C-alpha cells in the first residue's frame, strides 16, 4: 500500500529521531558490562545519533523540507533532538565515572578529570564544552543574529570534536562513516545554505512602503525562478546597492504575491538591524533566493476556513488572495496594533468588497493582547472549520488555547511561527 | 521548557562533577587494591594465557590478568586482544599516535596485577 505524502511528512522526523539513535545503540550495545558502564556507553551512542539527526534537520533544502513536513517543523525538531542529545551526552561521562565510584573514588575522578593528560579525555571535554557554549547562546535572548549564528556554529564543531573523541578512544569502525556523514551535512549546509550555492539570482525591481515600519519588495528573477506557491516563504540575502548596505545573510521573508513572470513580492517588517535597513532598499540591489518553504495552507481541502493574522502575519493570506478568487468561504480576522501600522489593510478591504466568499474582520488591538473570547466565532460556528493562524508566537499560542477551549481539535488548527533561531 | 532543561541539566552536571572531584580529594591516600602474592611469571607461562577469555599481559615489568577487563576496554577487540599473552609495554605506552594511556588506566592497572614479569626466568 502506498504511503501518502502527508503520512510521510508527519512521521518522517519522529521515525528518524527514533531509528538513528536506536540503530547506533543496537550496533554498539555493550554486553557483559556493569549496568552503569553500559548506561554510560548507551547514553553516548543515543546522544551521538540524536546529534546526527539534529544536524540533518538544519539543512535548508526545499525538497528535503517538503518530505520532512516543512522547514519550521524541521527547526522545532532540530532544537528538540539537539537538547535531548546534549542531556544524554552530559549523562555519558557521569555514568562512566559513577561506575568506578564503588571501587575507588580516585578512579572515578580519573575517569572524568580534564587534567588527565590524554587526548581522548581532552577531546571529550572540548566537544561537551562546545555544545554547552553553543547551546547557551541559543537560550540567551538579545544576541544579534550575525553574532549568534557564528556562536551557534560552535555546536557543529562540537559534534565533529565529539566524534574525534571516539576515534581517539580507538572506536573507529562505526565512527569514521558517521564522521563522514556529519562533515558532509555541515559542509552541505555551509556551502548551499550559508554561502548560497543553492540560491537563485534575483534583482530588486521596486520597493513600496506599506507602513512606517514595513516595505514590499518586488524581486525579478535573473535566471530560472524558484518554485514557490502562495502561502510559502523564501530565504533571501540582499547584496549592497549604491546606497543600501545589505546584510549578506539569508533571512526568511513571506511572499505576498507571485507574478506570472516569476517575480516575487515580499513583505518586510523592520524587526531587527537587517530588516530596518531594508526600509530604504532601492531598485537594482542584487538578491539571492532559496526556497520556497512552508505552506500554511498547503493541504487545504474544501472546508470553510478561519484565517487569523497578527500584524505582518497577514502576508501569507494576502498571497493567497492575490492568487485568485477564493474557492471556499473564508473569514479573515486581522489583528494589528494601530490602523497606520496595518499592512495591506486597504487592499484587503477592497478584496472583501468584491469577493463575497471573504469576510474581513479587521481589529486594532493596541499594544495588549485582545480579548480573544470576544473576537472569535462561537463554538457552533467553528464546527467543520479549518483554522489557520499566523503571527507572533505569543498570539498564536493564545489563539490555540482559545480555539481548543471552543472544541476545535488540534488537527484542525494550523499555524506557523517563523522562528528560525 | 527546553531553556529550563538546558540550564537545569548543565547546573546538575557541574554539581555532580564537583562531587566526583570532592570525593577524590577527600579520599586519604591512593587506595591500592589487594595484590596477590608477587611471584615471578616467565614469558612461557605468560604465553599460555593468550586468549580473550584468559588474557595476561606484561606491562612495565609486571604481569596483569586483564581477562575481566577486556569487555570494558573502549576500543574494538581486534586492537587489544592480539596483545594477550605478550609483553605489551610498548602498545600500552603508544596507544594513540605515540601517546601513553591515561591516568585512569594507570590507576586501574594495579587491581589486575598477578606477579612480576621474569622473561628469562626458570620454569
TrEMBL record, chain A:
InterPro entries: FAD-bd_8, FAD-bd_FR_type, Fe3_Rdtase_TM_dom, FNR_nucleotide-bd, MRET, Riboflavin_synthase-like_b-brl. Residues 197-299 form the FAD-binding FR-type domain. Signal peptide: none annotated. Its cofactor is FAD. The chain crosses the membrane at residues 12-30, 36-59, 80-101, 121-143, 150-168. The keyword Metal-binding applies. It is found in: Membrane. Keywords: 2Fe-2S, FAD, Flavoprotein, Iron, Iron-sulfur, Membrane, Metal-binding, Oxidoreductase, Transmembrane, Transmembrane helix. One of its GO terms (cellular component) is membrane. Its main location: membrane. It is a multi-pass membrane protein. This is Ferric reductase-like transmembrane domain-containing protein. It comes from Rhodopseudomonas palustris.
From TrEMBL, chain B:
The keyword Iron applies. InterPro entries: Cyt_B5-like_heme/steroid-bd (IPR001199), Cyt_B5-like_heme/steroid_sf (IPR036400), Cytochrome_b5 (IPR050668). Gene3D superfamilies: Cytochrome b5-like heme/steroid binding domain. Pfam families: Cyt-b5. GO terms for molecular function: heme binding; metal ion binding. GO terms for cellular component: membrane. Keywords: Heme, Iron, Metal-binding. Residues 38-118 form the Cytochrome b5 heme-binding domain. Transmembrane segments: none annotated. Belongs to the cytochrome b5 family. This is Cytochrome b5 domain-containing protein. It comes from Rhodopseudomonas palustris.
Amino acid at each position: 500500500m502506498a504511503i501518502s505524502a502527508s503520512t510521510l511528512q508527519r512521521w518522517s522526523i519522529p521515525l528518524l529521531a527514533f531509528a538513528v539513535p536506536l540503530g547506533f545503540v543496537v550496533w554498539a550495545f555493550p554486553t557483559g558490562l556493569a549496568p552503569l558502564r553500559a548506561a554510560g556507553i548507551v547514553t553516548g551512542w543515543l546522544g551521538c545519533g540524536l546529534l546526527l539527526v539534529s544536524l540533518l534537520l538544519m539543512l535548508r533544502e526545499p525538497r528535503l523540507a517538503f518530505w520532512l513536513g516543512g522547514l519550521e517543523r524541521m527547526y522545532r525538531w532540530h532544537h528538540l533532538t539537539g537538547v535531548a542529545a546534549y542531556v544524554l551526552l552530559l549523562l555519558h561521562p557521569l555514568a562512566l565515572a559513577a561506575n568506578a565510584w564503588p571501587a575507588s573514588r580516585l578512579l572515578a575522578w580519573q575517569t572524568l578529570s580534564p587534567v588527565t593528560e590524554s587526548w581522548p579525555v581532552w577531546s571529550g571535554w572540548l566537544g561537551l564544552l562546545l555544545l554547552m557554549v553553543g547551546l547557551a547562546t541559543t537560550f540567551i535572548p538579545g544576541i544579534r543574529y550575525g553574532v549568534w549564528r557564528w556562536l551557534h556554529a560552535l555546536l557543529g564543531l562540537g559534534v565533529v570534536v565529539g566524534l574525534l573523541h571516539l576515534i581517539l578512544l580507538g572506536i573507529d569502525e562505526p565512527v569514521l562513516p558517521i564522521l563522514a556523514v556529519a562533515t558532509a551535512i555541515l559542509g552541505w549546509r555551509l556551502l548551499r545554505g550559508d554561502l548560497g550555492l543553492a540560491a537563485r539570482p534575483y534583482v530588486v525591481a521596486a520597493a513600496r512602503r506599506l507602513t512606517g515600519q514595513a516595505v514590499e519588495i518586488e524581486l525579478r528573477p535573473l535566471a530560472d525562478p524558484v518554485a514557490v506557491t502562495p502561502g510559502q516563504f523564501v530565504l533571501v540575502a540582499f547584496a549592497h546597492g549604491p546606497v543600501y548596505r545589505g546584510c549578506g545573510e539569508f533571512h526568511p521573508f513571506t511572499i505576498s504575491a507571485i507574478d506570472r513572470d516569476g517575480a516575487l513580492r515580499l513583505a518586510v517588517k523592520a524587526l531587527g538591524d537587517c530588516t530596518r535597513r531594508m526600509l530604504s532598499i532601492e531598485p537594482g540591489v542584487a538578491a539571492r533566493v532559496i526556497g520556497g518553504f512552508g505552506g500554511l495552507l498547503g493541504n487545504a481541502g474544501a472546508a470553510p476556513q478561519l484565517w487569523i493574522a497578527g500584524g505582518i502575519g497577514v502576508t501569507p493570506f494576502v498571497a493567497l488572495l492575490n492568487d485568485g478568487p477564493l474557492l471556499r468561504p473564508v473569514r479573515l480576522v486581522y489583528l494589528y496594533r494601530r490602523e497606520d501600522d496595518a499592512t495591506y489593510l486597504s487592499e484587503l478591504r477592497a478584496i472583501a468588497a468584491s469577493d463575497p466568499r471573504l469576510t474581513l474582520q479587521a481589529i486594532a488591538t493596541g499594544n495588549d493582547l485582545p480579548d480573544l473570547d470576544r473576537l472569535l466565532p462561537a463554538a457552533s460556528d467553528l464546527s467543520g472549520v479549518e483554522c489557520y493562524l499566523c503571527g507572533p508566537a505569543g498570539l498564536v499560542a493564545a489563539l490555540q488555547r482559545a480555539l481548543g477551549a471552543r472544541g476545535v481539535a488540534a488537527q484542525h488548527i494550523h499555524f506557523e511561527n517563523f522562528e528560525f533561531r | 521548557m527546553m531553556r529550563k532543561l538546558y540550564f537545569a541539566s548543565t547546573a546538575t552536571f557541574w554539581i555532580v562533577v564537583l562531587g566526583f572531584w570532592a570525593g577524590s580529594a577527600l579520599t586519604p591516600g591512593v587506595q591500592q587494591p589487594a595484590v596477590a602474592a608477587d611471584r615471578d611469571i616467565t614469558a612461557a607461562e605468560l604465553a599460555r594465557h593468550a586468549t580473550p577469555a584468559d588474557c595476561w599481559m606484561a606491562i612495565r615489568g609486571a604481569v596483569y590478568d586483564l581477562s575481566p577487563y577486556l569487555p570494558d576496554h573502549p576500543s574494538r577487540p581486534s586492537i587489544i586482544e592480539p596483545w594477550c599473552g605478550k609483553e605489551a609495554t610498548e602498545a600500552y605506552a603508544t596507544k594513540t599516535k605515540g601517546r601513553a594511556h591515561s591516568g585512569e588506566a594507570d590507576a586501574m592497572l594495579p587491581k589486575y596485577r598477578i606477579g612480576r614479569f621474569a622473561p628469562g626466568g626458570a620454569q
